[in-house]
Amino acid sequence: MTETTPSFAGTPDRPATAAGPDVLSEMLRAVRLTGSAFFGGCFTAPFGVVSPKRWDESTALARLRHISVFHLVASGRCTFEHANGERREIATGDLLLLPFTGEHRFWSGNPTEFAFAPDIVRPGPIEGMLTVNHGGGGEETRLICGYLESSEFLFTPVFRSLPEMLVEQTGDEKVSALMASIVREVIALVDAATPGSQMILGRMMELLFVEVLRRHINRLPAGSKGWFAALNDAIVGRALTLVHAEPARKWTADDLAREVGSSRTVLADRFKALLGRPPIDYVTSWRLQLAADRLRGGNDSIAGIAADVGYESEAAFNRAFKRETGLTPGRWRTGDGAVAH
Fold it and tell me: pTM of the entire structure?
């Protein structure tokens, strides 16, 4: 798998605020987004398949911290149902994203039973890829599935700000040229099954995720809430830019309000309405996300990391880190324990 440095090429449906892309890029870097393709299948109607929340421990998927799953319809059509009961009909060219991968199922026709996905998959022609041929012999549906792993904490908002199922119709003439071209390339790479394809497919999945986020942000209706809506807010979006640019600065609510040209009350009200938390609470969360990334990704001392993200003492940092994650910085660094999602 490859670690992404997102590129925001392409033309969104409407221009994002000046703050949006920079803050989004920083957040995606901090959660260490990586992608991979893991499944290519041919299903013939009638068929029904259940995909579990957790796969068998022998598979790569079972060992990942936080995963989101893509389903790309290369041909045909089927119905997807989320664990919450939401259903979507998807067809050739459609891309379905499950930000949090709970149990879900998909089918076509009127299946008499639903197969358990881990029971019907087989090793594919590319290392790390699974394949399946399943169904009753009728109309064919080809699916390509990929996943994204991240080191996201409970308090990082990227995935929690997305709907539980998000569908992009890449055959739509309004879709960005970049997304359409990536989808075509993914299908071609899976069909070719040549050595080295897995690494390229991983990067394709990362780029697709970034494009899905961009389009989602730019389609948000007025009155939306959540982190993506906050990026488009004139006051909160500016505040997020400042905090992400200088996380170690000794921010106070008054300082942040003054910098964005707002009163402290208005800034607090906008943060509460959009993000459900006070501005300084967000500052703390972002500092700890940056610290967690460095703890896992390098050998810098805990004291040095604490100072770099704005803590005057290692003890204060340790208390804040454990309060947010349930783990001490040392246990987080060694992977001894896991944060629940």
Answer: 0.77
d(CA 189, CA 182) in angstroms, rounded, equals: 10
Do 206 and 93 touch, CB atoms closer than 8 A?
Answer: no
β-strands 66-75, 2-3 pairing:
unpaired
CB 96 within 8 A of CB 166: yes
**Amino acid at site 299:** N
Secondary structure class of 167 (helix, strand, coil): strand
| Main-chain dihedrals φ then ψ at residue 203, nearest 5 degrees | -65, -35
Give phi and psi for 38, each to the nearest 5.
-130, -5
Neighbour tally for 52: CB within 10 Å: 16
- Measured over the CA atoms of residue 196, residue 171, residue 161 and residue 285, the dihedral's sign is positive
The one-digit pLDDT tens for each residue of the chain (341 residues) are: 444 433 333 333 333 344 443 788 888 777 777 777 778 899 999 999 999 876 544 444 434 456 788 899 999 999 999 999 999 999 998 999 998 877 899 999 999 999 999 999 998 887 778 899 999 999 999 999 888 877 666 556 788 888 999 998 876 666 667 788 888 888 888 888 888 788 888 888 888 888 888 888 888 898 899 999 998 899 999 999 999 999 999 999 999 999 999 999 999 999 999 999 999 999 999 999 889 888 877 889 999 999 999 999 999 999 999 998 888 999 988 875 444 44
Joined tokens for residue 103: 């149990």
d(CA 292, CA 294): 5
Give the residue from 241, 188, 176 showing the smallest Cα distance to 212. 176
Q: What are the residue ranges spanned by the domains of the chain?
A: 2-219, 233-334
Tokens 């299946």 correspond to 111
Task: Please choose, from the candidates 205, 42, 64, the residue with its C-alpha nearest in 3D space to the C-alpha of residue 121.
Answer: 42
Distance CA 1, CA 123 (A): 18
Q: How big is the CA angle at 12 (ends 9 and 17), to the nearest 5 degrees? A: 95
CATH of domain 233-334: 1.10.10.60
DSSP codes, 220-261: PPTT--SHHHHHTSHHHHHHHHHHHH-TTS---HHHHHHHHT
